[in-house]
Amino acid sequence: MKHLLVGLATVFLLLQVNSLQAQDNWSEYNETVLEDSIFAIDEITVKAFHYESRLQEAPAAIAIIPALQLERNSLQPVDFTLNQIPGIYMQSASLTTNRLTIRGIGSRSPYASNKIRAYYGGIPLTNGVGETSIEDLNLAVLGSAEIIKGPASGFYGSGLGGTILFSPRQARQNQFLFDYGIGSFQSQQQHVQMALSDSSKSHFLALENIQSAGFRRNNETDRQNLNYAGQLRIDNHQLHFIANHTDLKAYIPSSINIETFEDSPQEAAGNWAAIRGYEDSEKSLFGASIDSEWKNRWHSTIGLFGQRRKADELRPFNFLKESSHYLGARMVLEKMIKTTEGHWKFLLGNETFFETYHWETYQNTEDRAPRDTLSDNRERRNYFNIFTQLEYHFASKWHLSAGLNLNQTRYNYTDQFLTNGNQSGKHTFKLMYSPRLAMNYELSQRKNIYAQVSHGFSPPSLEETLLPDGDRNTAIKPESGWNFELGSRGYLFDRFYYDISAYYMTVKNLLVARRVGEDAYFGINAGKTAHPGLEYDLRYQLSLPTSAWSHQLQLNGSYSPYSFIDFVDGENDYSNNELTGSPRSQVNASYLVSFKRKIDLQLFYKHVSEIPLRDDNSIYSDAYGVVNLQAQYTREWGNFQLKAFLALNNLTDEKYSSMVLINASSFGGNAPRYYYPGASRNLNGKLQLAYFF
After folding, report:
1. Are 584 and 577 a contacting pair, CB within 8 Å?
2. What does 102-142 look like in DSSP terms, one character per residue?
3. Cβ–Cβ under 8 Å, residues 536 and 554
4. Across-strand partners of 633?
5. Measured between alpha carbons, how far is 187 from 219 in angstroms, rounded to an integer?
6. Which of 25, 394, 509, 512 is most buried, by the most CB atoms less than 10 A from its CB?
7. pLDDT value at position 519?
8. What pLDDT score was predicted for residue 18?
9. Which GO terms describe its molecular function (predicted)?
10. CB atoms < 10 A from the CB of 332, how many?
11. Are 603 and 591 in contact (CB under 8 A)?
């Protein structure tokens, strides 16, 4: 870690020298900022932590995905876009099975994404046990995304790795749009949307339909999304409404062993293919909020949200039926005080969440229908967060921020199938205090440095508190950690943009999932991990915004030698080993050329280093590099706009594992199944027609 900090300090010194020597010509073309050039970065406003300030001035490691980038990537799943952010690694087994990690947090989760929080228009996409589902989001209805890297518990509650804030797309003008796409693996995509807007209100409605046979056997997917976002302004009050519905049926190929991966990566796991395992689900979420401006610089935000989900999953070992629903509220009160030297901002708020989760398992039969009951369970999960934040903007270029969050999480489990004993019980975790202290300083015009210290935590799931004998592990504790970070953003020689950060995070009470069956786990606290890292995002604009041709180069990535500090699991001591499931380095490179914003061509390259697959570091996945090419053509005439999109993925036909299963066990004498193969070379395209009125 010393070398990382020394290296970063050297960079900061060079930046300061450059600020004294270089002539800043920004004012010559500041009026013509384009959204798809690096010059627009200087104008981006972030809303994370309620900062409402330019990204340049934010005292945190925040990455932005603007609407234009989301549109360019509309032929791709959400993991393609998120994986272009340094520090983020979203593994993808299929359109519906993913694992999202930020700075190595969440890498040991068996199948789901946890220890990361996500919100869509203020609605949590994270359930009561910390599992986050974003893979079924429709990119076409997203206005932007902000990624807070590192613990954000001081404002958003549990979320040791970070928080992702998705903003719904809002209507800016009256529009009707339709697009149709086709691609490899019998893929089809249809999307239709309508937007209505005037000075006081707006409505945005979209419907999406996706079908695909998938790269692998037993990999078919059929998904429909219905999305609505609306706004209404009344005097000093602004109301926001969001409603989403997703209907999904996806077959599950599951993971495969090394022999199948090397010889026939398109095959599914034998037991899943034999039974035609699948997931069939419906999910609806809604949210409503009101932002109000009051006298004397008071501001309030009150939001209500909820979600309902039903799902069936046919698996080789049983048939799972699930139903869940949650309700919650989030309130923030804000006060601004201006002085001659700057201004203060004080925030106080809370978030409450109540969820009921009912799940049953049944014995499978030859006709693939559920028969005899194996289990019947009901869980009630709830938490509350109380948070406060104080900010001070000095006129002398300083921005200070301090926050504190109090969280309490409770589980109530009822065993409704008592044949094998009663495992019912309650679990209440102790109050968690998560502070955060951060600062940002303007070194010179368009060059800033920031530092932060933050605490984060993630509670275990209810299932992790259950022991194999039916008792409860009342001593189990949430994972928690401290993050120390130093970073800088800015411009060199006008056309070169940089965003560099170095951090060191320690996590204690590491939760380890012990597998005791194909569908059975329990958790223990088994150690401590170290997460040192260096992240960089470098962009160079080869042309001025006034030029017809635009050329942009981007290089970003991360170096993250994460390791176990103290990790003893039973009789095995894994201390000082590399952290399982996390690559040591990632590199992204891209080249974008655009002509008059009518023709875009973008080339991507992503490299991921080898990944340790077992805690003893005896097995690693191979490093890989993937090349993708995207093109876009835009033509306008009158009130009509036509766009054509083309994406050629895995240009070199690289054989790689797009997701891995760590510490895979073997059952029935079969080899462990570590690998989810990535798709072979594939082509996708679509046409989009819009009418503005």
Report:
1. no
2. ETTBTTT-SSSEESEEEEETTEE-B-TTSEE--TT--GGGE
3. no
4. 599, 644
5. 12
6. 512
7. 56
8. 41
9. siderophore uptake transmembrane transporter activity
10. 20
11. yes
**Strand, helix or coil at 55?**
helix
Looking at the DSSP bridge assignments, the partners of residue 684 are 183, 647
Distance CA 608, CA 172 (A): 39
The pLDDT score that the predictor gives to residue 520 is 59
Residue by residue, DSSP assigns 628-692 as EEEEEEEEEETTEEEEEEEEEESTT----EEEE-TT----TTPPP--EEEPP-SEEEEEEEEEEE
pLDDT value of position 275: 94
Q: Give the per-residue pLDDT at 629.
A: 98
Residue 344 three-state SS? strand
Whole-angstrom distance, CA of residue 388 vs CA of residue 390: 7
- C-alpha–C-alpha distance, residues 406 and 433, integer Å: 5
Backbone angles phi, psi at 364, to 5 degrees: -80, 155
- Cα(664)–Cα(674) distance, integer angstroms: 6
Contacts of residues 566-572 at CB distance under 8 Å and 24 or more positions apart, as own/partner, are: 566/527, 566/528, 567/510, 567/526, 567/527, 567/528, 567/529, 567/615, 568/526, 568/527, 569/512, 569/514, 569/524, 569/526, 569/527, 569/615, 572/615, 572/616
Contact between residue 560 and residue 4 where contact means Cβ atoms under 8 Å apart: no
At residue 17, the pLDDT reads 39
Q: What is the largest CA-CA distance in the chain?
A: 79
Six-digit token string for 676: 């989810």
Taking alpha carbons only, the member of 485, 483, 396, 487 closest to residue 449 is: 487
In 3D, which of 403, 414, 419 has the Cα closest to residue 466? 414
Q: What topology does CATH give the domain 2-692?
A: Maltoporin; Chain A (2.40.170)
Q: What is the DSSP string of 306-336?
A: EEEEEEEEE-SS-EEEEEEEEEEEEEEEEEE
Tokens of 634: 């835009």
Segment-wise mean pLDDT, segments of 10 residues, the chain, 693 residues:
42 39 34 50 79 86 92 91 96 92 90 89 88 86 93 81 92 94 97 95 96 97 96 95 97 96 96 95 96 95 96 93 96 93 92 96 77 90 94 88 94 88 86 95 92 93 72 82 96 91 95 64 82 97 79 96 90 92 97 92 98 96 98 96 98 97 84 96 98 96
In the block, tokens 């691609």 appear at: 183
Query: What distance in Å separates the CA atoms of residue 299 and residue 237, rounded to the nearest whole number?
Result: 10
For the chain, what's the residue count? 693
Could you state, in order of their start, the residue ranges of all structural domains in the chain? Answer: 2-692
Contacts of 169 (CB under 8 A, 6+ apart): 67, 140, 141, 142, 143, 204, 229
DSSP symbol at 270:
H
